Every structure is written in C-alpha cells, then in structure tokens.
Amino acid sequence: MFRNFVALQFSVARMVRGGLLTVFLLAIALTAPTLAGEPLPQPSGRVILTISGAIENTNGDGVARFDRAMLERLGVTKVNTSTSWTDGVTRFEGVLARDLLKAVGATGDQVSARALNDYAIEIPFSDFESYDVLFAFRMDGVDLTPRDKGPLWIVYPRDEHPELRNQNIDAKWLWQLVNLDVQ
C-alpha cells in the first residue's frame, strides 16, 4: 500500500511538473521576439504602427503591422529623461527601437519615420544601436493618445548622453508616429 501511495505521489508530481513546463514553454513562445525570416502574427487590436521597406518579417502585403499588445510583447523598457517639450524628468515606457527593427528583420541603414500629420524625419540605425531610443507608448504611467503625442513618440535618453541635447536630435523626437520605412 505504501509503495502504491509513493508511486502515485511521483506520478502526480511528474504531471504537475510536465504541465507547468508546458505552460512555461508556451508562454515563452508567445512572448518571444520573432526571429528573422519568421512571419509575424496578425494584430488583434487597432494597428498603431506600420513598418515597410527593407524588412524580412511581415504580416501582410509586404508590411509589418503592430497593435499595442504586439509591441508590448517585444519587451517594455523604461527611460527617465527630460525633454524640450515637458517640464522636469519624465518617465517613458515603450519598445526599444533596435528590438522592433530586429523583430521585423530590418536590413537597411536608416528609417524614415512619419507622423499622423505627415511630418517625416530620417533616422540612422546607428542611433538605435548606440542609444536606448524608445518608441514610447506611455508617459508618466499614462498611455499616449494622438492628443498627447501618441500613439507612439520617438524618445531619446538625452539625460544619460549629453551629446543628445541639441536641435538635430530634438528634430528626431517625432510624436504621433504611425509609419517607419526601412531604407
């Protein structure tokens, strides 16, 4: 009887471990960034960013479309920095530009970023490699909307890098970002 009880305990323990391992592996698979050459999932919510141009991973018609949840699955990073448009230090949350470009398999050396009002700016990939540039979707804990520079705002960590405090970099702080064209 004791042997049967011990065997039952080990059997249950294996099932629990196996089940938890399955859940863990599934969670990793669903949240892991896409590797180059793999298709992107379809957005289930409102598309807030479309990426076109020299990219390998798409989810329709040669473009990569992202809703907010897809961006968050790539990893949320926080940057505390001052800006030329806000008072004091502001906390921004968003996806690192280099992580997003990696997820779409970007092969260019610059992006053309375009806002809702068609303002556009060219940004070299070297900015994204050298600095923790964010495509921010939250400011001081509040989701950005088009009325307050959303859905996405390109944010540079200027307080960590004094060389980022100039008009040339300020011009790259594009808000109401809706499109990136990789060139």
Mean pLDDT: 86
| Strand line-up of the largest beta sheet | 2-1-10-5-6
Strand content: 25-35%
Give the fraction of residues assigned to helices: 25-40%
Count of structural domains: 2
Unreliable segments (pLDDT under 50, ≥5 consecutive)? 4-8, 20-37
Alpha-carbon distance between the termini? 71 Å
CATH C-level class of the largest domain is Alpha Beta
CATH topology of the largest domain: Sulfite Oxidase, Chain A, domain 2
Instruction: Tell me the series of helices and strands, N- to C-terminal.
Output: HEEHEEHEEHEEEHE
Give me the CATH architecture of the largest domain, please. Answer: Alpha-Beta Complex
CATH superfamily of the largest domain: Oxidoreductase, molybdopterin-binding domain
Report the biggest beta sheet as strand number plus sense, adding barrel if it closes: 5 strands, mixed
Sequence-ordered SSE layout with sheet pairings:
Layout: H1 2-31, E1 47-53, E2 64-67, H2 68-73, E3 77-82, E4 89-96, H3 97-103, E5 110-115, E6 120-124, H4 125-130, E7 134-139, E8 142-143, E9 153-155, H5 167-170, E10 177-182
Parallel strand pairs: 1-10
Antiparallel strand pairs: 1-2, 3-4, 4-7, 5-6, 5-10, 7-8, 7-9
What does this structure look like?
This protein has 183 residues and is α+β, with helices and mostly antiparallel strands. The protein folds into 2 domains: 1-31; 37-182, Oxidoreductase, molybdopterin-binding domain (Sulfite Oxidase, Chain A, domain 2), CATH 3.90.420. The chain contains 5 helices and 10 strands; from the N terminus they run αββαββαββαβββαβ. It has helices at residues 2-31, 68-73, 97-103, 125-130, 167-170; strands at 47-53, 64-67, 77-82, 89-96, 110-115, 120-124, 134-139, 142-143, 153-155, 177-182. The chain is globular and about 40 Å long. The relative contact order is 0.17. Residues 4-8 and 20-37 have low confidence and may be disordered.
